[in-house]
Amino acid sequence: MKKILSILLILLLLAALALPMQVLAAPTGAAGVTWSVELFTIGGGYLVAPVQRTAAQKPAEALLRLLTASGYVGYYDGTPQSGFYLAFVGDGTQTKKYQGRANSAALYGTPTAPKTLNITPKVPAPLKKELASHGFALDEQALQGRLGEYQCTKGGGWLFSVNGAFPSTSLADVQLKDGDVVRVQFSLANGADIGGATPAANNFYPVAHKDQLTRALATADKNTAAYRAALSCLQTLDATQTQVDAALSALQAAGTPTATATRPVPTTVGECHESSTQALPSSASTTPPTSVSLAPTTSAPTTPSSIPATTETTAPAVPDLFADLWTLIDEDEIVRQAGTAVADWTEIGLARLGVAQKTAAYLAALLEYVQARYKEPDKLSATKATEWHRIALAVLACGGDPTHFGTDADGQPIDLIADGTYNHPDLGKQGINGWIWALITLDAAAVAQEASEDNVPENARTTRGEIIVSILDAQLPDGGFALSGDGADADITAMALQALAPYFTNNKRISVAVGNALTCLSRLQSADGDLCVDGVGNPESTCQAIMALRTAAIPLDDARFVKNGHTLLDGLSLYRTADGGFAHTRDGARDVLTEAQVLLALTPPQGDMTYEFTVYLPPEKDPPNDWRFFVVLPVMVLLGGAAGIFLHKKRRRGCAMNN
After folding, report:
1. pLDDT tens for residues 405-427?
2. Alpha-carbon separation of residue 3 from 16, 291, 634, 644 (angstroms)
3. How far is CA 648 from its chain centroid?
4. What is the pLDDT of residue 222?
5. Which long-range contacts (CB under 8 A, 24 or more apart) does 167-171 make?
6. Which of 202, 369, 554, 633 has its CA 20 to 30 A from that of 143?
7. pLDDT-based confidence at residue 617 (cuts at 50, 70, 90)
8. Is residue 369 within 8 Å of residue 418, measured between CB atoms?
9. What are residue 592's phi and psi, to 5 degrees?
10. Which residues, other chains included, contact 425 with Cβ-Cβ below 8 Å and sequence gap of 6+?
């Protein structure tokens, strides 16, 4: 009895240690997220006038879709899920000219109604004066085709603000909610001209807060004098806060448009932006229970095998779909980019396929990259644990040891597994992604190193059990998972399944969670067979779903994942290009990020592609027969005696966001 009371007391103390989540206050009274794309600093008005979109969309993906829907295209580095950086906004009519890339940045989408991007910068006089006094040489020649980094000045580029704050991180890592205002802005001075200067620099001038006025403009009647006055105020560089507030009051008094009102897109010119000292939005990161032994659920477990495989259709032969994708990849170029997302995932796929020719060179380049980054204060990332996870998986796939991968600035061995998983100070800082990939990475390392016991030490910040529970606690009512919002995200749901599936036979709650997630993922599959994001087919999500089924030992022609006679492989084949590569959009150009995920989803190209435990290991690293026993055993031990360990653990949960 004393032991039970002690454990309960410990749990209560741990709950009290949970830090409150800090979020950036959103303007009140509005549903959805307000977006705008602004050219105020070069006198171009709005490229995309204020418009509202659902908060359920992933931020980077929402921006790219907004640009495409407006007739333009986005060229980006990183991915819409991680490390996203908007390098250029491009002419929607010239996508073929750049063949899917511009200055190494990847192209997203092809507009159905493409627009020409021809801009002649007309920088307002006050900003010209500031640029000159701060050493920014200005080039106002006409811009055709695209607008982005280093154009017009050496400080030219796209920045974004959320509710007046300028993140120091990627848009992909921000979690948006109803009422938020996101302004994507072209800067000529690394943000100093729009109120978003770095801490080491100063803004050129005071900038009024214009987010509430921007949000109001999205739903205002465009046929009123108040609308035109508000538009002018938003684009005026030196507008005072008093002027902005007055414009907002007048716009609100004018009311919303009538049903017959016409709503022309504004094209007036001007410039300017806003600043704030508020913190960035934070992802929810609650202190998890100390084990996965939670109260029994009332529903019966829904195991992944509860629905028999269908005979409705047979999955296409993987070698036919796979073709010679790997032969199209320049591995020398991949080696040169070691440490980037696209290079790491591609090399993992090539290693899994068994055709990588440069693994030694890749490991050497990756070692150089990691050691250089470890000399910096933030090491691999200030906010993203997934940087450690991806690189550790690349090291494993290439046959290296991520627990002893080079030395840091003090000459100490670098342990990517410890630093990125059980000893990371805040796995949940970037959202559920951190928990998911920590578990996948821990398990992959355990298998690769043929561990006979839990590879998380007793003095770790976070146990494997806590990681599992943090994932489970994030499951949505619809059975799916998401970075933000109440609606399931296909990518995150599939990734969560990859992390949880190996455990479903040993725990009732996990079994139910996996079954519900599979049901949700099935609902997100289209009649063509591919997975949908916001109602649009997405090959990357389809790849993640394929990997989820493989991890859960489910055939790809399982009844839940055959729609209208089409499997996930049928859906993926819709994105195959004429030369055997894969595109991000149907009939689009080859996309290296898409192809990296296809490599992972379709390797190795033999057998029935079921149960590999993890797709992130070399083929020879098969899971040992007692894998589930030695992985689940430490979790079950937590039920009886591990609670005392947690009294000595340091905890940093939730808090400020920053990717």
Report:
1. 999 989 999 999 999 999 999 99
2. 20, 16, 20, 10
3. 33
4. 82
5. 167/280, 167/657, 167/658, 168/198, 168/280, 168/658, 169/280, 169/382, 169/383, 169/657, 169/658, 169/659, 170/60, 170/78, 170/82, 170/83, 170/84, 170/85, 170/659, 171/59, 171/60, 171/63, 171/84, 171/86
6. 202
7. low
8. no
9. -65, -35
10. 461, 652
Tell the burial category of 29 from Cβ atoms under 10 Å away from its Cβ (0-12, 13-18, 19+). exposed
Q: CA 292 to CA 60: how far, in whole Å?
A: 33
Greatest Cα pair distance in the chain: 80
Confidence check: pLDDT of 20 > 70? no
Name the residue type at position 476.
Answer: L
Q: Annotate 224-260 with three-state secondary structure.
A: CHHHHHHHHHHCCCCCCHHHHHHHHHHHHHHCCCCCC
- Each residue's pLDDT tens digit, 495-538: 999 999 878 766 788 888 999 999 999 999 999 999 987 677 88
β-pairing, 157-162 vs 143-144, is: unpaired
Find out whether 210 and 244 touch, Cβ atoms under 8 Å.
yes
Handedness of CA 83, 87, 93, 95 (dihedral sign): negative
* The two structure tokens encoding residue 384: 């993203």
Q: For 182-237, give the DSSP string.
A: EEEEEESBTTTTTT---TTS--SS-----HHHHHHHHHS-TTSHHHHHHHHHHT-T
227: CB partners within 8 A, 6+ apart = 217, 220, 221, 251, 254
pTM: 0.53
CA distance 361 to 250: 64
pLDDT at residue 371 tops 70: yes
| pLDDT tens-digit map of 576-607 | 988 888 988 888 888 888 898 998 887 654 33
Are 531 and 568 in contact, with CB atoms under 8 Å apart? yes
The CA-based dihedral angle spanning residues 246, 248, 252, 256, taken in that order and rounded to the nearest 10 degrees: 140
Tokens 């980054």, located at residue: 373
